[in-house]
Amino acid sequence: MNPPQRVQWAIAGFVAVFVGTVLAAAAALVNSEERDALEEARQRAERFIAGAEASLNRTLLGIDVMLAGSETLLRPHRLANGTYDVTGTQSQLRTTISQNLLVRDLVLLQPDGTVLAAAQPDSARLGLPLPPGFVNDAMALPSPQLVISPPLVNFVTTERMIYFARPVDMGAGVRVLAVAEVPASLIASLLSQAADIDGLVATLERDDGQLLVSVPPHDTLVGQRLPQPLGDAMPTGHAEPGPARIGGAPALVAVRPVLYRPLLVAASIPIEAALADAHEQRRFVLAATLLFLLMVLGAGAFAHWHLGRLAQARTALNRSKNMLDEALASMADGMLLCDANDRVVVWNRRFLEIYPWLADVVAPGVPFERLALVGVNAMMPDAAPEDQQGWVQRRLAIHRTEDGQHEQILPSGRVIHAVERHTPDGGVITVYHDVTAAERALERAKADAEAANKAKSRFLASMSHEIRTPLNAVLGMNGLMLNTPLTPEQRRYAELIRSSGQTLLALINDILDLSKVEAGRMELEIVEFDPLATVNEVVTLLAVRAEAKGLALAMTASPGLPTRLRGDPSRLRQVLFNLIGNALKFTPEGRVDVDLTHRPLPGRRVELMIAVRDTGIGIDAETLPRLFRHFSQGDSSTARRHGGSGLGLAISQEIIELMHGHIDVQSTPGIGSTFSVSLPLEVVPLALSGGPAPGPADTTAAPAAQPARRILVAEDNGVNQILIKAMLDHLGHFSDIVADGFEAVRQVQAAAYDLVLMDIQMPGMDGEAATRAIRALPGSVSQIPIIAMTANAMVEERAAYLAAGMNDHVAKPLDLGRLAAVIARVTSAPGGGVAPAPAERLLRPLAGGPALS
After folding, report:
1. Does the domain formed by 331-434 have CATH 3.50.50.60?
2. Average pLDDT, whole number, for the chain?
3. Which end of the chain has fewer CB atoms at under 10 Å, N or C?
């Protein structure tokens, strides 16, 4: 029975009013969220632009003050004749840039653009890549003021640089241009706070639109002029709607000038990014609104209950069917449902997207076998009939199997994973999942991980080379100095320099060891060794350090300790140096004891146990769990008092675990610590031993006398040229020096040499290319021995040098004993040459600038 007409109208009116109210409230809420989001974005842009302007002003003002004070800084180095002392001038310039972390180089240019003095040797030699007319324009200013160049690529560092110049009167009518070289990346770091604001792009531009720096970086646009220069805008710092500075999308743009015209800093927040959260909120509001509307519709449907059970059932059935259709249509996977008679009941759109050849066949009531027969023609169109029939039978067997699953490779190359489950009424539901996209994503992730690992290896190799190159000069010159007559005070200073340099070298080696461990490339050199002699050697070497601190250092060993074990004594020494060295470092008074014990294991094996006990400051219980982490120490105060990188214990643990042992620590604050190492090692019977275990090579011993050789040295670093020349003179050899690979190839053809010492990284032609060129020369000159001199310490790099045709290599920092041994080895073949009269040393003058007294 139908309800009265007025009741039906009342229900409809109530629903309409409620729906209208909900929609109006939702629209008002969405509009409010968007207004609030835009206002928040505007305030963020204005706060950022104010902070960026202040940061840039401080930086530019600091650079300007530094340049303006050049005459005052260099006045003490001015000579009576009006010139400047080169050593003092360059030292003062280096001191000045060391106090300003932004400035890479400080250069004084004469009015004609030549270099008068520079903090960096490469600038003194090669000059600066300034744009044409830059020097003349700056020097022609009626009053000194800061002039700023566009971003330029430094041909030495290959970085983008911005040059800040200011004319400076040096007195006596001399006027020079003081130029500060600042990496553009460091200027960009002043704008890096933009990374905290989603979508914000910060730019530093000229008023003509030329882009100097952007965050995030847009390298292809740097130095280019952006559309709509900011010189026409009102740089008030207020965020106003307009096109984004990069990309031109609708955005909120705030612009402020810095102290030094014509520079402007701008911040752009795209409207889309500003409204991202509001749009997300809008989706939530719409979903909630939809939920309310569904509730209203449900209430209306319930109110119409009295319209009759049949109408209500029909409405409910239609609603359920529509919801099921929508759910099936929104599925990311394909779905096919068959009944107990294996006939099609329902499917979704995704199923036909995966198998488009079934679009004209699938329908309710169609047997699944019919789908298989059509599918085989698409999957195997050229197969023989019996092969096609076999495929159909296998497909039907899987379909009818309880909870079957399989994979299909479609003709397009897509991989489909099908899972089939039986329903309680005997039907079968099959879900088809396209796994191709997941596999491709996995391949991309793998490629990204491999690229990141290669980038890390390149970074470690580069940093090792860049640090080892100057360290070679420091330790080498220090070694030569210690071989000369020195006063006790001078010798003490020189030995302190050597100790600090060796500490730095040990840190570099620790970092390389850590990279090998993380990459799984650290290898052990298993040889016979005497454990007592190995431990005693480390204790003896560290006894000097203990005596200097007034500490007692003693070692005890248990009776019956085997004299021959198989293991890696070098890595064991490395661990002991870390443990005993740490004990001495953190023990202000008292003693350090090293106990060496053992216990038998099954077979010809023993467990070697080494305990290092000290009476030092100890370690609290909260610190112990992180003691063996990379770059970790007890606390920050300990790091300040005692120094260290925090790598020693982490690498020691990795080495011990690589040897299948373990390391433990027990400690009480204020009483001391005990580090215990246990290693399972093989015992070598005396009857099988090959004699005494080899001891460590003594690279500090004086090299044995060798025949004088004539040696060509290819090295581009001036300090290293002097060092290598002095080392070879000390060894009694004659040497010529060239500065790059091209000169090396020409020189071996111009004169007879017994050996070539070849640096790897050189300008023009590097060491590997020069070696290949020499090996390709006709005649006996192609067989000349070549030794690589390299600061690259990675194993794969050394293998590449040998593959290029080099006979051996020596690592920087150069060790005199190691150098002598390698020279003797590669020149010991029959027919080795004897050096003629000493050849003239090849020198190259510095390029650019007048001579300074």
Report:
1. no
2. 80
3. N
